[in-house]
Amino acid sequence: MQIVEYRIAPHLINDELGHRMMIANALSVGVQEFQFQIVRRSIDARQRVMYIIRAEVYFENEKLTRLLDFQFEFKNAIDAPAVHIIGAGPCGYFAALECLLYGIKPIVIDRGKDVRERRRDLRAIQQEGIVNPDSNYCFGEGGAGTYSDGKLYTRSDKRGNIKKILQLLVHHGAHEDILVDAHPHIGSNKLPDLIARMRETITSHGGEVIFNTRVEDFFIDKNKIKKLICSTGDIDVDRVILATGHSARDIYYLLHKKQIAIETKSYALGVRIEHAQSLIDEIQYKQKRRDENLPAASYSLSCTVDQKGVFSFCMCPGGLIVPASTSPGEIVVNGMSLSRRDSPFANSGLVTSVDEQDFSSYKSHGVLQGLEFQKRIEQRMFSLSDGTQRAPAQMLADFLGNRTSDALCDTSYIPGLISAPLHSSLPQQIVYRLQKGLLQFAKKMPKYIYSNAVLVGTESRTSSPVRIPRDAEYCHHPQIVNLYPAGEGAGYAGGIVSAAMDGIHVVNKIALNLKLI
Ligand SMILES: Cc1cc2nc3c(=O)[nH]c(=O)nc-3n(C[C@H](O)[C@H](O)[C@H](O)COP(=O)(O)OP(=O)(O)OC[C@H]3O[C@@H](n4cnc5c(N)ncnc54)[C@H](O)[C@@H]3O)c2cc1C
């Protein structure tokens, strides 16, 4: 087998003969003398827009191993030792699947509803501004990953086996393209079915998934959790994975109240910025109209202001801004997209890193200072609105010019926008860094700044404001030896893939403990 890399024009991307000619040319062989499969696909838009392809090429006697030639052997774990997993997000569900690969019984508990039922609550937030604190864009089956953009790339590729995560997703119904694309993406219209299939794998192999059950307290004896005290009754446990995500503030308060160690963590905070997708396509592809064989263009921007990062975050081409609040009385926004990424809008977080320097006036809250800082900003955003989920917003030019906008442009945000002076409502150091950062971005992408764009407040749930410590080798909490903090909420992941990898990582440690490895 030989690996060949080549560039191919967008109009030839689906043309088999076109690919054969590129390979034949690179290897000086005839176009029909080989079999091939594409193993990597990315786009280079620096000059003329081209796909960059990596292909495996097989000759006569060589056996082609297809990317889809993999399988998973989930064991029946009905009578096996159990792990209770709090949280049915990517961390919790991938941890449950990993349990089944070892023959451990996963029992997943989530405060929210199954993916289908959850939709009603999302409609209530979008259309009536009603936030159900147990079922929303962050809580419920699949966690914050379900109604998300479904971008599947991560920078933390050293932390685990990304390929295995993608294969597990394909096994449960994701398109095989995600095994090849440099920036794989699923889309929030496809994710719910895929998550329901994961649940079927869990329950059909002896695992359990319990919905509408909020964990409210722990009964602890001799450094071990013995019972979960839940909204629906008590549950006896032997070992617990805590995968409750970055928005489960009640869990942080609970741990703090019980004097179970947690730590302050830096994160990032700012606004969501929305442009017309056609503008981003034009900037990135340097074409007036995007070629139909190219996806909606994305971008990634970053710089440093006053030694703090300012960067684009979770950019959603052809996407929608969504209300991601988890409690009444706050406004939080995030972004998602459908698999076709065909909305006329491009949105992205525009955020700056925040740390103890920024939280200084919240010092009295100790380890919860970052959380309280985040919470107050979200509440402040709500106070600028009209009691619904209409989000405070400002045109980009007005934000840079420190004036309230007289009018706002069209938006994808369904609850609607309300003009507000974000420049004087967000903490001043954050406004300063965002303004300076935007001016630096203008040097790289002038039209990004000097075109119609709207800023929406606030993008505050970028990662957890708290870390739950764990033993470096065995992954359990230093004080509670059968509690395994995991995923984004514990501070060990940021995004779907890294949360899934962390869930798997923790189960490997539990399997070691159970002498299954
Ligand atoms: C709108 C949106 C779009 C996003 N887009 C992307 C993207 O495109 N790509 C990407 O990589 N990341 C994206 N993210 C982030 C990603 O979803 C998270 O990083 C990821 O879901 C974290 O996984 P997790 O399992 O650690 O936690 P979560 O997904 O937050 O799951 C935690 C689960 O715990 C449950 N829970 C919380 N408290 C309790 C309790 N007390 N008792 C019982 N259950 C509880 C919750 O109901 C929830 O289901 C997006 C997030 C949002 C909100």
Can you tell me about this structure?
With 517 residues, the protein is an alpha+beta fold. The chain has 3 domains: 2-58, Dodecin subunit-like; 82-262 and 466-513, 3-Layer(bba) Sandwich (FAD/NAD(P)-binding domain); 266-459, no CATH class. The protein is 28% helix and 24% strand. The protein is built from 13 helices and 22 strands. The protein has a 7-stranded mixed β-sheet with strand order 13-14-17-12-20-18-19. It has a 5-stranded parallel β-sheet with strand order 6-5-4-10-22, with helices on one face. A 3-stranded antiparallel β-sheet has the order 1-3-2, with helices on one face. The longest helix has 18 residues, at 496-513. Bound molecules: flavin-adenine dinucleotide.
* Percent helix: 25-40%
Largest beta-sheet details:
7 strands, mixed
What is the CATH architecture descriptor of the largest domain? 3-Layer(bba) Sandwich
User: What would you give as the CATH superfamily of the largest domain?
Assistant: FAD/NAD(P)-binding domain
Count of separate structural domains: 3
Extract low-pLDDT stretches: none
Distance between the termini: 34 Å
Mean pLDDT: 96
> Based on helices, strands and strand pairing, what is the structural class?
alpha+beta
Fraction of residues in β-strands: 15-25%
Largest sheet: spatial strand order: 13-14-17-12-20-18-19
The coarse overall form would be: globular
- Radius of gyration, CA atoms, in whole angstroms: 24 Å
Distinct helical segment count: 13
- CATH fold field value of the largest domain: FAD/NAD(P)-binding domain
Record field, number of beta strands? 22
What hetero molecules are in the model?
flavin-adenine dinucleotide
CATH class of the largest domain: Alpha Beta
